[in-house]
Amino acid sequence: MRVTKEPEVRRQEILDTALKLFGENGYERTSITDIAKAIGVAQGLCYRYFPSKEALFDSAIEQYADILVAQFTGSEKNNDKTLRQMIEEMTFTVEERNTPYYSVFHGAENKKFHDQLSLKVCEKLVPLVEKLLQRARQKGELQFDDIQAAASFCVYGQLGILLAQDLTQEEKSKRIREFLIFALHL
User: DSSP letters along 129-178, please?
Assistant: First the structure.
């Protein structure tokens, strides 16, 4: 019997199943056919939503980046805090280990995927940081004009520290906080 689902529900089902299989078998060893079989649908249905396995994976990166960025946006909404307070309180670990995304993007063999995710998260964070810096400048907390460059530097500049394997999470957080406060003259 054929089961009809709303397009967004079906699309998400395909994404979720793909992530599960990518995590279990690896990206290279998972095909669209495998994904379709796991769901119990025709392979063509998967291609209706995603023209290729790469497009499916790009959608997964986009979706996971949106989830991670949403977790950072809480401090952006609090207008009462100074930029320095937000930096001192900001969290650097937002990922939950028991999600299908985590195993795909953090497996030892998936460094390339993790790097792609990191860049996508940075891309999505820059506009949010621009707003925070703009607000801080309007409040007199910052004295420079190139907010866009500062936002890009603040976001992308953290990657070297965040990706370092020889530092603990606490050391990474401390270094980033101290440098941001120094660089922004806060």
Answer: HHHHHHHHHHTTS---S-HHHHHHHHHHTTHHHHT-SSS-HHHHHHHHHH
- Say whether both 42 and 134 belong to one domain: no
* Total structural domains within the chain: 2
* pLDDT, tens digit, 9 for 90 and up, residues 103-154: 677 666 667 787 888 899 999 999 999 999 999 999 999 988 899 999 999 9
Q: Tokens 């979720």 appear where? A: 16
Do 128 and 69 meet the contact criterion of CB atoms below 8 Å apart?
yes
Backbone angle region of 6, left / alpha / beta, with phi > 0 → left and psi within -120 to 50 → alpha: beta
Domain endpoint, select from 51, 75, 91: 51
Range of the domain at 2: 1-51
Same domain flag for 115 and 37: no
Output the pTM of the full model: 0.80
What angle do helix axes 32-39 and 53-72 make, rounded to 10 degrees? Answer: 70
